[in-house]
Amino acid sequence: MTTANQSFVCPACRRESFNPHDIAQRYCAACHRFFDERSNALFNAMSTPDLEMYRAALRLDLETATQTVLFCNQRLGTIERVLRSRQ
Ligand SMILES: [Zn+2]
Predict the structure, then answer these.
(1) How many angstroms is it from 54 CA to the middle of ligand 1?
(2) Domain span at 11
(3) What is the CA(35)–ligand 1 centre distance, in A?
(4) Residue 36, CB half-sphere, CA atoms under 13 Å: how many?
(5) 31 and 41 in one domain?
(6) pTM higher than the cut 0.85
(7) What does the pLDDT look like over 18-66, one tens digit per residue?
């Protein structure tokens, strides 16, 4: 791990955190909020039992998964083209 010098500076209150979990989730303990879009959506969904918020959080997961699949398909297409050009 080379996270020794890393920190997360809160965009709202400028508090700096060296906690690896805070850095990963872009969480500010002073503001009690996440600045990562997905973590923030999940946090809101858990703190207020609202079905629409759960749906919003799940939609973010779905978008991320879809983007990953599209990216893999692109890479696969490139690899296939390279292999075909070598034949
Ligand atoms: Zn803050």
Answers:
(1) 24
(2) 1-35
(3) 9
(4) 16
(5) no
(6) no
(7) 999 899 888 999 988 888 877 777 777 777 666 777 777 778 778 888 8
